[in-house]
Automatic annotation (TrEMBL):
<dbReference type="InterPro" id="IPR035906">
    <property type="entry name" value="MetI-like_sf"/>
</dbReference>
<dbReference type="InterPro" id="IPR050901">
    <property type="entry name" value="BP-dep_ABC_trans_perm"/>
</dbReference>
<feature type="transmembrane region" description="Helical">
    <location>
        <begin position="178"/>
        <end position="199"/>
    </location>
</feature>
<keyword id="KW-0472">Membrane</keyword>
<comment type="similarity">
    <text>Belongs to the binding-protein-dependent transport system permease family.</text>
</comment>
<feature type="transmembrane region" description="Helical">
    <location>
        <begin position="65"/>
        <end position="86"/>
    </location>
</feature>
<protein>
    <submittedName>
        <fullName>Carbohydrate ABC transporter permease</fullName>
    </submittedName>
</protein>
<feature type="domain" description="ABC transmembrane type-1">
    <location>
        <begin position="61"/>
        <end position="250"/>
    </location>
</feature>
<dbReference type="InterPro" id="IPR000515">
    <property type="entry name" value="MetI-like"/>
</dbReference>
<feature type="transmembrane region" description="Helical">
    <location>
        <begin position="126"/>
        <end position="148"/>
    </location>
</feature>
<keyword id="KW-0812">Transmembrane</keyword>
<keyword id="KW-0813">Transport</keyword>
<keyword id="KW-1003">Cell membrane</keyword>
<feature type="transmembrane region" description="Helical">
    <location>
        <begin position="98"/>
        <end position="120"/>
    </location>
</feature>
<keyword id="KW-1133">Transmembrane helix</keyword>
<dbReference type="Pfam" id="PF00528">
    <property type="entry name" value="BPD_transp_1"/>
</dbReference>
<feature type="transmembrane region" description="Helical">
    <location>
        <begin position="232"/>
        <end position="250"/>
    </location>
</feature>
Length: 262
């Protein structure tokens, strides 16, 4: 009886979560406005063809992919040495520094939006994916350091000493020995950086005034007095694909990472 109730509760929860997604997918294949000789309610790929044929929507997809990949690369490239230093060396205030990094991450982005906009406008980084990537890395780097530091700390220091005694340089040790050991941590960090950057809208709105708009801003711009919800849902479904692909690519590392952390 208990198992049956648990199964029913899980099915109800799954239906509650998946129902909006199923409706979005169905609408993405439905003509919600009569156009091009198609009656309202017609099923087909017309919404996806219209979305992919629009230059501004294609540019938004490229912009989002560009700044998200740059953000992940910046966070892992800068976070790994910082996490290694915090995990292997002791200095006054090291634990307080880790806590300060985490506190900075939970700071509301809107608090820093005006100073960042003024600074980036002077540096010429407004309306470019690089500007969004840099500001996202500013907020995602503390999370990256926090995650990688715990994974590096789990590796015995003797592992490092043995590699250096074998004649490995610092770069060789990182690439050939340390990275395979903390691969689950890299997967978890990359996953969080990707998701946080992909769905962020505050800085994406502020730093893309006339150009360089990401996919979130492109979807918002599609709403008007007479919105074609079929095309909006098609664009929304396309925006889900990179996240699904990211989860699929690092699924093993994510599972191992959360297991090791637990």
């Amino acid at each position: 009886m208990t198992r049956a109730l648990t199964a029913i509760a899980l099915l109800a929860l799954a239906a509650f979560i998946l129902a909006p997604l199923a409706q979005a997918v169905l609408l993405s294949f439905t003509a919600t406005l009569p156009r091009d000789g198609l009656a309202e309610g017609t099923l087909g790929l017309m919404n996806y063809r219209a979305v992919l044929a629009a230059p501004e929507l294609r540019a938004a997809m490229v912009n989002s992919a560009a700044y998200v990949l740059m953000n992940v690369a910046l966070c892992l490239g800068a976070g790994l040495p910082a996490a290694y230093a915090l995990a292997r060396f002791r200095f006054v205030g090291d634990r307080h520094l880790l806590l300060a990094l985490l506190v900075f991450r939970v700071t509301p982005p809107v608090v820093l939006s005006l100073p960042i906009f003024i600074l980036f406008s002077h540096l010429g980084l407004v309306n470019s994916p690089l500007g969004i990537a840099l500001v996202h890395a500013l907020f995602n780097l503390p999370v990256t350091i926090w995650i990688l530091e715990s994974f590096i700390r789990a590796v015995p220091p003797e592992f490092d000493e043995t590699a250096f005694l074998d004649g490995h340089s610092g770069l060789s040790f990182f690439l050939r020995h340390l990275l395979p050991q903390i691969a689950p941590g890299l997967g978890v960090a990359a996953f969080f950086c990707f998701i946080f950057s992909w769905v962020e809208v505050v800085f994406a709105r502020i730093l893309t005034v006339t150009a360089g708009k990401p996919i979130t801003m492109a979807i918002q711009a599609m709403f008007s007095f007479q919105t074609d919800m079929g095309q909006v849902m098609a664009m929304t479904c396309l925006s889900l694909l990179p996240g699904i692909a990211m989860i699929w690519l690092v699924r093993d590392h994510i599972a191992r990472g959360f297991t090791l952390q637990a």
